[in-house]
Design goal:
Blueprint lengths: L6 E3 L3 E2 L8 E2 L1 E4 L10 E4 L2 E4 L5 H16 L3 H18 L2 H7 L1 H9 L5 H4 L8
Parallel strand pairs: 4-6
Antiparallel strand pairs: 1-4, 2-3, 5-6
Helix pairs in contact: 1-4, 2-3
Length: about 130
Amino acid sequence: MLSHNNCIHLQPINIVEMSKTKTRRVHIFKRLPLQKDYYAICLFGFILSVRPLDKIEVNHESIHAAQQKELLYIPFFIWYGIEWLILYIKYRDATKAYFHIRFEEEAYAHQSDLHYLENRKHYHYRS
């Protein structure tokens, strides 16, 4: 669990190009939970990071926020974990398994499109 002392709250990042209705706040921490090889994570719609993020990185995490919301959060994390485990067994490589998770495939494929979330169809990761 992270203590409040480890957190530096940044001002909300207005991403006008990304969405006319969304303002994302990135919370910066010294460490993230289960710190491995990542520097940002979206948990329950909150973007946590160990450093400031650029617009593309915020968009990537915002795509995960939309995925989590439409699956009502907890089922998203269960699906994500089970899919990673199955892919890990298939590929015998944690990184390759991560990049083949359908949620990550959607986020990486569309992270550069800052208008993606405005037109994104629900459950797009299923296609």
